[in-house]
Specification:
The complex is a heterodimer of chains A (297) and B (345). Chain A is α/β, with parallel strands linked by helices and 297 residues long. Chain A contains twelve helices and ten strands. Chain A folds into two domains: 171 residues, Rossmann fold (3-Layer(aba) Sandwich); 79 residues, no CATH class. In chain A, helix 1 packs across helix 2 and helix 1 crosses helix 3. Chain A is globular. The relative contact order of chain A is 0.15. By secondary structure, chain B is mostly helical. The chains are: A alpha/beta (297), B mainly alpha (345). At the A-B interface, helix 5, helix 6 and helix 7 of A face helix 1, helix 7, helix 8, helix 9 and helix 10 of B.
Chain lengths: 297, 345
Amino acid sequence: MIGASLGAAAYERAPEISGILAGAGPVEDTRPARLSAKTDAILTLSGIGIAFGGVKALSDVDLEVKGGEIRAVIGPNGAGKSSLINIISGLYHADRGRIAIDGQSFSRVPASRLARLGVARTFQNLALFGGLSVRDNIASGRVHTRRASFVEHIAGLPRARREDARIAEKVDRTIAFLHLDTVADRLVATLPYGLQKRVELARALVAEPKILLLDEPMAGMTATEKAEMAGFVRAARDRHGVTIILIEHDIGVVMGLSDRVAVLDYGRKIADGTPAEVRTDPAVIRAYIGTADGEGI
Amino acid sequence: MAVQALDAGRPSIDWQKWALPAALIAVAYCLIPAYASSYLVEAILLPFLALSLAAVGLNLLTGYCGQLSLGSSAFMAVGAFAAYNFNLRVEGLPLAATMILAGISAAGIGVVFGLPSLRLRGFYLAVSTLAAQFFVQWALTKFGWFSNDNPSGVISAPHLVIAGFSFDGATGRYLLSVTTVILLTALVWRLVNSATGRNFIAVRDNETAARVIGVPVLRTKLLAFAISSFIIGVAGVLWAFTYLRTVEPAGFNLDRSFQILFIIIIGGLASIRGAFLGAAFIVVFPLALSRLGAALFGWLFDSGVLDMSQRIVLGALIIIFLIAEPNGLSALLDRLKRRIGSRSS
C-alpha cells in the first residue's frame, strides 16, 4: 500500500517510483488504478515508450487525464502524437510503460475490447465505411452493444428488432446533435471532407464513451469548419460529460478549447499545464520556433 | 424532437421497390413453366440459376465482406458430392434436408479454408483459397468413397422427389432450382440489410476502424466464409442435380471459380442483382457469340475459334469493366434508369 500513501503530487513528481509500481504487478495491476481513483484520473499513461525500427517515437511519456476535461496533446509534425493515441486505443503496443483506463491497467490495450472499455476514437485520415450511409456509419458506433446473432437478424426476431430500434433512436439523437439531418441517408463517401469528419465524430459519440480520443479532428478544415467542430467538441463534453483527448497539430485552435495541454517534441513531453502556462513555456516556444510550425503562438 | 426524427427516419413501404421482384417471381412461376422450350430451360435457365446462386454466395464474401476467394467451385464440389453421399448413405433423407446438409458441409470446409483470412489479406488470401480449389478436387478424385467407388469419380443425380412428387423432368428441375434460388436469395437480402451485413461492409471498408468500434472482425470474417460457402455449396447441388445430372470433380476446376468471380465483377460487387445480371451475361454471351460468329463468318467460325474469341472478348470486357465501371452491370442499369427517369419527368 505504498502506492496509496504516495498521493497525487508525489506520484507525478516521481516517475521512477511510478515506473516501479507500474512494472511490479502482473497484467491486471490494480495499484495504479487506485492511485488514479485518488486523483480523479480516468486515464493514466506512465512511462510510455515505443520505437519503430530503432527510431524512438515516444520515450518515457507520462500523461494523466481527469474525468470530464478536454486534454489537448500538441506538438510539431513527427512529435509522436498519433503514436500516443494509437497506443491508448491498442493499435500500437508500447515497448514499455502502462496505460490505466478507468481503473483497469494494461501494458497492451486490447483494441477489440476498446469500445466496451468506454473508449471511442476518430482517425487522422478518415476511417469511415464508404459503402454505408451516414446513418448506418453512425449506427455502427454502437455495434459493441449488440447481442443478437445473424440468424435473429435474418428472421427479424424480437431481440434483433429491439436492438435496431434502440440504436436507431440514439443515432437519430446524435444526428440531430451534430446537425447531420439533411445528409443522414446519403452514402458517406459522397459527402465533402468536413462533413465526413463530423460523421466520424458522430460515430464515436453515439457509443456514449467515457473517453473520446480525437486524432486531429480539424486537420484540413476551413476556419469556419474548425470553429464549428470546436463548438461540437465543447458541447459533447458539456452535455454528455465525456472526457476528451484531443491531438492537434495547429496549436492556435486548441488553446481556447482545452483545459490542459501537453506538448510533445521528438517523442518527449516537454511541457504540461494550462494553455496559459504552456504558451509562455520557453521549451515550447523553442520547439515550435525551431521548426517550420511557428503559427498559432 | 427525438420522436419526430424517429418517424421521419422510418421508411414507408415502397411499392415500386416490390413491383419488380413480384413481377419476376410471377414470370418465373407462371410464364416460364408454361411456355419455355426445353432448350431454354436445359441450356440457359438451369445453368443461369445455379451460377446466379453461386455468385450471390461469392458476392457475400468478396463483394460485401471484401475477402477475395478463388475457391468457389471447390465449395460447389463439396456441396454436390456431400449431397450425393447424404442421399446415397442415409435412407429416406428428404431432398430438402439433403440440400441443407450439403450446404452445411460446404460451410464447414469454407470456415477451415477461411482461417487464413484472419492473417492474410487481398492477393495473399486469394492465393490461400487456391489451396481449397486444388485440395478439394484432389481429395474427391483420390478417395473413391466420395463417388461411391466410381472409377472416374463421376456421380449421377438421384431421383428428385419431394413429398411424393417427382421433379426429374426439365420443368420439375427448373421449379426446384428456381425455388431454392429465390428462398436463399431472400435470406441473403435480409442478411445484407441487417446489422450483420453492415458488419461485413465495415470489415471490407476499414478493418481497423471496424475493430476499434467493436465489430468482432475475426468472427465476422469466418461467418462470411461460412454463409458464403453454404450458399455456394447449395449452388453446387443445383449444378450437379438439376443442370448437369452427371458430374466429376474435374468439372469443378479453377476455370469455374474464375467464372463465378467474373460474374460478380461484370455484374457488380456487393449487389445481389449484379450476381443475376452477371450470371445471365456469362450464360447467354457464348451462345450469342457463336450465333453472331456463324452469321458473320459462316463455316470459318468453328468451335476452336469460338472458344478463343470467347476468352478474348470476355477478358477485354473484364478489363473494361474494372476501369470504366467497377460497379458492373448493376450500376450501369441504375444509370440507365435515372436517365430514362429524368427524360420522362
